[in-house]
Amino acid sequence: MRFVRQLQMKTSILETTQPLPTTKPLDLGWVRAQFPSLSRKVNEYPAAFLDGPGGTQVPQRVIDAISNYLNTHNANTAGAYATSRETDLMIAEARCAMADFLGCDADEIVFGPNMTSLTFAISRAIGRELRAGDEILLTHLDHDANISPWRALEECGVKIQLADIHEKDCTLDMNDLASKITPRTKIVAVGYASNAVGTINDVKTVIRLAHEAGAMAYIDAVHYAPHGPIDVRGLDCDFLACSTYKFFGPHMGVLYGKREHLARLHPYKLRANTNAVPQRWEWGTLNHECIAGIAACVEYLAELGKRSASVSGRHEELQAAYHVIHAHERKLMERMLRGLREIPGLRLYGISDPAQLEARCPTFAVRIEGHTPLQLATKLGELGIFTWDGNYYAINLTERLGVEQTGGFLRIGLVHYNTEQEVDRVLSGLRSQVLP
Ligand SMILES: Cc1ncc(COP(=O)(O)O)c(C=O)c1O
Predict the structure, then answer these.
(1) Is 148 touching ligand 1 by the criterion CB < 6 Å?
(2) In whole angstroms, what separates CA 255 from the centre of its chain?
(3) Residue to mutate (ligand 1; options 290, 393, 409; most atoms within 8 A of CB)
(4) Nearest in space to 166 (alpha carbons), one of 142, 141, 137
(5) DSSP state letter for 10
(6) Which residues, listed in sequence order, are joined to residue 255 by a DSSP beta bridge?
């Protein structure tokens, strides 16, 4: 019971941020002008990118940073010549940008191809320390990238536990989760937010419970990162992974690890990799042009913050950005929920109670009687409205809810560059399919 109450009392996804001096509303005109792809047309319709959870669009400055790197600075690292030194500097700067983004030190940032690979890297290294009978706690709400890398350790005799959900609103059952943390639990791996149904988990409580039992906490923040600010120190998580292509950057993954863990664990690595943190976790040649794009995407968010509030310093600017992003997304979310309620035969999976909206982000999983999610997505696609259908790798959830065999859900995912008109368009697109 106590955790249910805690969830209900959860104040705001922005609870880690400080009050801001003066905040202006989101300048949507400026925001949209930053993203060239938003002006695309499909079948004469303006494209409505409601597929953010699968990957967001990028601002022009990200495209420029990638092409500028390839035009002018392209080289491998650690060479005794100009372009190589520039590459070293650029990577160091991108690490600082991500450190400001996540609230940690630059040497606690690891770059990798994507969140999945980084999670496998950590799970393999942790697996070297685990013994038969040790336990790992996962959840039914998580993306498979935070499930299978841990399940792989079953071959060493590790036992996997799964925390259940409340079926009625797809929130984590915190009592069940707490009851499954035992003295044998070594890792608790939980998503910050669900990429299928939008639930924001009370990860701070999960991390505290893990630590009380002597376990480490691994947080998948991939879906949360475009919607709310992340403060790894405030959370006190041991690891947190995210993917820059979900928050307006290029296709890459970023991992935060507490320095002590990054130094102590034993990654599988090449002899040529030194034991320095974080390079011992970064094998082979990284995607330098995309790393240049990461710094630019953090700068985009920082500029959005600077335009919205009188703050200075990149970390503060990022906090300000998420304040205005949150307010805009909240407006879109309320409009979407009001409209979805009026569509006959539609079932929404996830939080719909207006009093609980702070515990969800604007990601909506729906099904409509008599239509498969693929049929719905295809029709919307013809109208230039990009949504997704299926399980989006949240397979534990689609199986748990019994929709895996029948096409999963239709997912409508909003981010801060989406508009009220786009919300109305998807609602009318859905209505036109169900009404005669
Ligand atoms: C919640 C969540 N976790 C993990 C992943 C995997 O991320 P990546 O594609 O960077 O491996 C995704 C991708 O969709 C996701 O939505």
Answers:
(1) no
(2) 12
(3) 393
(4) 141
(5) -
(6) 110, 241
**Residue 134 phi, psi (nearest 5):** -65, 155
pLDDT in tens, 360-409: 999 999 999 999 999 999 999 999 999 999 999 999 999 999 999 999 99
Residue 84 Cα distances to 75, 105, 223, 258, 327, angstroms: 5, 24, 34, 29, 42
Distance CA 247, CA 30 (A): 17
CB of 241 closer than 6 angstroms to any ligand 1 atom: no
CA separation for the pair 187, 201 (Å, rounded) = 17
Full-model pTM: 0.95
At 89, list the tokens: 């500097």
249 alpha carbon, distance to own chain's centre: 12
Q: Determine the length of the chain.
A: 436
Residue 187's beta-bridge partner residues? 136, 216
Give per-residue pLDDT as tens, 155-167: 999 999 999 999 9
Q: What are phi and psi of 103, to 5 degrees?
A: 80, 45
Q: How far is the CA of 114 from the centre of ligand 1 (A)?
A: 8
Let me know: does 177 contact 139? Beta carbons within 8 Å.
yes
Which of 222, 254, 290, 363 has most ligand 1 atoms within 8 Å of its beta carbon, as the pocket-test mutant?
222
